[in-house]
Amino acid sequence: MSTHASTILSQCRNGHPVAILSGRDLADFETGGNGRIMPLVDVIREQLWAQGRVLIEFSRSQGLRSDARELAAADQRVLSDLLARLSQPPANPNANEDRDMRLFNTLLTGLLNMAQPNGPVLSDGRPLQLVVVVNYAEHLLPRSEPGHKTDLQVRALEGVLELSKSLSFRRSGNTLLLNEARPQMLDELLQRQLPAIVLAQPNAAQKLVFAHALSQRYPQALLDGITGEEIANAASNTPNRSLEGVWSSAHHDKVAIDIRQVYERKQRDIATISEGTLVALDAENNARIQLTGRMIERPMRMLMRTADGIRRGRSGTLRNILLAGPPSSGKTQLAMLAAAKAGVSAFELVTGKSQWVGESERRTMLQLRLLREQGASIGLIDEVEHRMQLDRNRPSHDSGTSEAIMGMYQTFLADASLSGRVGLFATSNRPFAISDAMRQRWVIVPVFSAVAEDLPAIIKAMLDRLGVTDASPAALQEAAQEFGRKNASPREIRESYVAARCNVPEEMGTDEVLLLAARTSIGLSDQGATILGDLAALQYCGSDLWLPWRDATSGVFDPSFPIPAHLKQFVDATTGVIDQDKLGKTVEELRSRVNI
């Protein structure tokens, strides 16, 4: 039997005839058994009828409806009579009552009556078994306090719970599904007592089948230079409706399918499905990021191996990596570059905090569920200590919302089943602002500020990104010395060059502009913030193998490495052992007077 129908009926077979349905939109497109493209709800309807069950739908806007074309004429009359009884309003309705809620209560009562031995029978002698899907169920039974519900809502809530506990309803083979358009918006009592069925978005293999059906349906859409597999991977884990739109547009315009348009649609779909809590990263632009320097090499190598392990599904791959270091050390660009080159889906995790009660927890739960469903993927959290509260000792003044969200993330970070499937790359200037319980769930990798010897190469890479490639080695060296003397960060170096270029004649050469930028740069970087960021990264580094002055394979200390002066005083010149006591006291003292 098909996956969709088996997924829906699995809870019924397990003794749960009433369940909450969420995830994929039933109006999304799907490939039917005959290869035709049709709405998912129609595919499910056909599959259920093959099992002797009839799908009917109810909503405020459409009332009670069913498509009975697959049934024989006699069976259509039986179903029509049943639907008439299920939608029969009470004899003396109250004019002030909600009409749709009255119909919903009538439906629930009718379903309970159908469970009796004398229920409706089809022409072949089988009992008529229904799968009732209540669309937009959160509009009928929304999450709210008990005192805020109407009498009809209270009765409907009780009716749903009674059906879920009724042995006769379970034996009848009928099923009631409360279909949520927005997850976790149903009444809290229903969420606690009813099982949840989540229809996942189609993965790459399912997308490939759908892409083949699209190529048959829209033969004038061209596939120049790309394959169906590439399109399926680009659109995986998103609704089929967007891919159908791309294919249909290419067919009518008689042009080739643009893979960039497929990616753009996926980005919008992910943002929509996650309610803005997941934002797809621009892999094409991020892959062009250029980074250089000895302080970058070790974390870059580690991130790329982690990304490769996720792409290959290796269970021993590192999962939660926190890049710690001072501002402007390249942490964010490093994480974005590694995510772009990973060859898997990559998203920025945006906080789900909301002003409404319960909404923050709901959106965070949705975010983490979707990230799990994405399969091989990477999530990026920039400045993680500012995106969410990571220290339980700090008061949040939000009635426990921050603590609840923190608990969700701790559970997610500790989920060993995600190893080799989902990786999180986070950055932080202040690892000391993270509680021990949360910090221990991350592998903290230091990204120290650049050493002076690397500044010429860093400036050259910066100029390359600006499209400037004719700077001489002598000018790069002189500018690096001047910028280094002023403790200018890479970000300030770039801004100084752009500012100088904007103020000089266009015919002025690159070397002259670069040296002018170096001479006129004020160097506003807070050296205290750089020092504190470096020291904190060193303090919380969990392995000598992450330190650039140690060999990456043996861990042997390299005394010739140009360790910055503010770090060198804590590293033994002979053994490379770190004086943790002195380091900890210095970090604590700097925290009281440095704003990082």
Record the SSE blueprint.
Elements: H1 3-13, E1 18-23, E2 29-31, E3 37-39, H2 40-50, E4 53-59, E5 63-66, H3 73-86, H4 99-114, E6 129-135, H5 151-165, H6 167-172, E7 175-179, H7 188-193, E8 196-199, H8 204-217, H9 228-234, H10 240-253, H11 259-273, E9 278-280, H12 283-286, H13 294-312, E10 320-324, H14 331-340, E11 345-349, H15 359-373, E12 377-381, H16 384-387, H17 401-413, E13 422-428, H18 436-439, E14 443-446, H19 455-465, H20 473-485, H21 490-503, H22 510-520, H23 527-539, H24 565-568, H25 580-591
Which features would summarize this protein structure in a list?
596 residues, 25 helices, elongated, single chain, Rossmann fold, 6-stranded mixed sheet, 46% helix, alpha/beta, 4 domains
Question: Can you describe what's shown?
Answer:
This protein is α/β, with parallel strands linked by helices and 596 residues long. It has four domains: 3-199, Rossmann fold, CATH 3.40.50; 204-273; 283-446, P-loop containing nucleotide triphosphate hydrolases (Rossmann fold), CATH 3.40.50.300; 450-596, no CATH class. The protein has helices spanning 3-13, 40-50, 73-86, 99-114, 151-165, 167-172, 188-193, 204-217, 228-234, 240-253, 259-273, 283-286, 294-312, 331-340, 359-373, 384-387, 401-413, 436-439, 455-465, 473-485, 490-503, 510-520, 527-539, 565-568, 580-591; strands spanning 18-23, 29-31, 37-39, 53-59, 63-66, 129-135, 175-179, 196-199, 278-280, 320-324, 345-349, 377-381, 422-428, 443-446. Helix 21 (490-503) packs across helix 22 (510-520). The model has no long low-confidence stretch (mean pLDDT 87).
